[in-house]
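so the lab meeting is tmrw and i was supposed to have these ready like two days ago... anyway. pasting both below. for each one the top line is the aa sequence and the line under it is the structure tokens. i havent really looked at them closely yet so no promises
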Amino acid sequence: VVDYRELNENTIPDRFPLPLISDQIARLGGAYFFTCLDMASGFHQIPIHPESVERTAFVTPFGQWEYLVVPFGLRNGPSVYQRAILKALGELAHTYCVSYMDDLTIIAETIEEAVERLHVVLSVLTNAGFSLKLSKCSFIMERIEFLGYDICAGQIRPNVRKIEALTLLPPPSTVTHLRQFIGLASYFRQFIPKFSEIMAPLFKLTGSNKGKIEWLPEHDRIRSLVVQRLTSEPMLMIFDPQYPIELHTDASSEGYGGILLHKVENRPHVVAYFSKRTTPPESKYHSYELETLAVVNSIKHFQQYLQGRKFTVVTDCNSVKASHSKSDLSPRVHRWWAFLQAYDFDIIYRQGKCMNHVDFLSRNPL
């Protein structure tokens, strides 16, 4: 991946808006059959203007090369691509073809209607010069996952993967694990009425040493109640870009995690949770590399929300913020930042004691 950070800083942003996720999800309600089309090579289907080709130049051991199509990493790639797709689809984009970046979903109420509409959309895309990646396409399905939601039988439900980073975890077995869970719950305590009263039995368990704790059914009921509050309204909300977007990340040798948030009236509302266990090689990374990896993989996980939108990354690693503008990076970190350059975000540093909510996910990954 070419490092286009300097080019992006000198590029006038294209403000073409991406579709609202809530609007696109609402259009799927009432449909019973779905065809999902995935565009091949994404941005590479869009040609570069001849006057801009030289600005994409990069050097390799085999000489200097230039892109003739839009490469990954250019600032305006998402906006240009979305405009091209909507222009190609025309009125179809406002009727039965739901478009979000390189994901197209054709909705229908009957199988016959689904086949007919698929033929129309394929004809339109072919005439416009677009091609599909067949291995990632699904045809006439009764259940699909779209932008973080499960769609089936005319109904729309949040995808369980948005909250499984919490719901699938086993109860804490040590004082350390319990304190990490309390740190997560405390960050969102304003959404849990009588928080101190409810959590009192768990607070008492933290007074012992760091060894095993006696976890009773009473404690598990409290934990289940807190998890239920953290994974339902008003705590968990549908993504809405009119509100400020924050991505809180943290990492440890055990795993890394991220929480996608909106700030509504200065209060944090979760959109989705994410955690992942580190691989054996990753667990040996330097802490700075782990924190950067947490940012990269969290953005990849939430890319449908973040691509083409301004957001803020919050981390407890000051080195990650400093490397935002550095050029003397290790090859591994350089590759990560080459990926991140396609996203428009600021980085804020906060002390670790203010990041207990996401620290829990990094130390208790799935």
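ok protien two:
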Amino acid sequence: MITSSQNPKIKYIRKLAQRSFRQKERKLIVEGIRLVEEALASHWRTETFIYTEEGVLGERGARLLELAVQKGVEVYLVSPGLMKELSDTETPQGVLAVLWQPDMALADVLPPGRQPLVVVVDGVQDPGNLGTIIRSADAAGAGGVVLLKGTVDLYNPKTLRSTMGSLFHLPIVTVEDVEETLKYLTSVGITLVVGEPVGGVPVFAANLKIPVGLVVGNEGAGPRPEIFQYRHSKVTIPMPGRAESFNVAMASAILLYEVVRQRHKIQ
């Protein structure tokens, strides 16, 4: 059992809490039974599995340890105190994994044989909002999610928890060159569908059976102006009540499920 916080492996994992170090090493940390289950069941490569004795007492925890060993993952037993140091949660569940960040290309969000539905996230800052948007995209059957430069880190611990494992279910691509990304998406026939609080076509009247890139803008500023230089349409969610707007994650879910309704002939 590792009990010292000066252990090289522990010091390395602790550094992965820093975004810059995660980017340099191309790794991330997931913690908790649910996320580690999803990670080990996915095609993502797991480097290290960390656990406490209590964390593997239950059936699900014990199964995770067994699966990690079967897959040739490094496994380390640590003290509860060390697990608390490594964890981003108040009450750690006693299991944690270090994964390699996958290499994804923009083309991966356009699976063959399916009408394109891509979520384009432009500058969303709240990790919980981003995680919820990814979860909604997964539930709606989107081909993938594109994160434009300026969006909160996908591998932020709060983002990861908010996805509830959905990041392992569909391609998510972080891009630096916004112009080239928008050129590519529109060049393959996608129309950028931008939600606007007022002034757009009522979403229930818009044609969303076409190839759609649903643009999700920054919580305060909305999407960047460059978006509107490419093929796009503006849609608005009718709000007969007195609220001025929806939370960005909630609005995304409503728009995604209007796509689902139209494409699946749900009345």
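from a quick look at the 2nd one: The domain at 8-100 is CATH 3.30.1330.30 (60s Ribosomal Protein L30; Chain: A;). DSSP finds nine helices and eleven strands in the chain. will dig more after coffe
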